[in-house]
Amino acid sequence: MEDPKHIHISEFNYPLPDERIAKFPLPVRDQSKLLVYSHGQVSEDVFTSLPNYLPQGSLMVFNNTKVIQARLHFRKETGALIEVFCLEPIEPNDYALNFQQTGHAAWLCMIGNLKKWKEGILRREMTVKGQPVVLTAERGECRGTSHWVDFRWNNPAITFADILESFGELPIPPYLNRETQESDKETYQTVYSKIKGSVAAPTAGLHFTPRVLDSLRQKGVDLAELTLHVGAGTFKPVKSEEIAGHEMHTEYISVSRSLLQQLIEHGGQAIAVGTTSVRTLESLYHIGVSLLAHPDGSNDALHVSQWQPYESQPAVPVSSVDALQAVLDYLDRHGMEALHTSTQIIIAPGYDYHIVKAMVTNFHQPQSTLLLLVSAFVHGDWRKIYDYALAHDFRFLSYGDSSLLIP
């Protein structure tokens, strides 16, 4: 596999006028346009026609993460408004456990208007589930561009999930350049979202409706779910000239035993809905490869580092089925029902895909790591796709139209 570190991000630029960025979704989500790229040919259709392009007996994998209302606003006594944006849980560092806390929870947060919050404790009085609660926030150490924040509240009947639910604001993408509206609470979640933890939606999934899911089942497409909690780093532009200088954010993944079995039954191949599902499925392959080399590896050793796919090549090629079986065997040895780990994988030109054979994805920002992922998938043919979309009135980014890519 080629080393992609010296790729220049400037080669992945294209003109995206502001009016092409969809500020709101369509009234009916499955009426969006679908660009179909199949073996080098580009055409267009409507999203409801998606099942027509997929082979019977294929496995389609969705990310069932749910976007949390991660932005909390506090007003200081001076009148300054401070925004505390919860990125990932620290104490406890498990999402589900953190949401169940009833007095204290610590998160890694981005802070808006940081210069106005030098010290001191922020307070906010609120009513949650009809009960009065005082929530405080105390700033701890700085980690990169984020800060440790301790949240405390004085009502043991209220969980941290309740506080975010009542008081948090849904974090829509910064490039929409507008305030979050009540409608976003519904339209910025997939219809199958279940597991709380993302600060951004896996947006390819926003086009699916119960009727599209039903018609996929009728076509004989098997549907399965995994969880990857999308971090704010997904919007982080590549600032370095070469991608070697870009640090990928860590994202938390959870994959059930049953999904691993389904993938193995489908020959280690899947159709991924969204780049988050792509990153999870491809990470599974590399986790399997490292387990084959070190079967007794600790759970920490299962983390997929940014350049791992390019740097640690097995001496003998490993099939996707063998890699997945190694992960399944690991779960069986440890009596686990699901794999919980994290990935920092960067998929860029030079990457060889192992599990993902087709993907549904939206149109991504210029010079983004997501565009690199798409380019690697279509063997460098991304311009043909984006030129077509720009010339045929497709809507771009999170609330925009989608594409089905079959290399």
Q: Which regions have little confidence, pLDDT < 50, spanning 5+ residues? A: none
The helix-strand sequence is: EEEEEEHEEEEHHEHEEHEHHHEEHHE
Shape: globular
Quick check: average pLDDT?
94
The largest beta-sheet arranges its strands as 2-1-17-16-14-3-12-13-15
Count of DSSP E strands?
17
* Computed structural class: alpha/beta
SS summary, helix count: 10
Largest sheet geometry: 9 strands, mixed
Terminal CA distance = 18 Å
Task: Give a structural overview.
Helix content is 23%, strand content 28%. It contains ten helices and 17 strands. The strands form three sheets. Strands 2-1-17-16-14-3-12-13-15 form a nine-stranded mixed sheet. A six-stranded antiparallel sheet has the order 5-6-7-10-9-8. Strands 4-11 form a two-stranded parallel sheet. Strand 5 and strand 6 (81-91) form a beta hairpin. The longest helix has 19 residues, at 275-293. It starts with 32 loop residues before the first strand and ends with a strand. The mean pLDDT is 94.
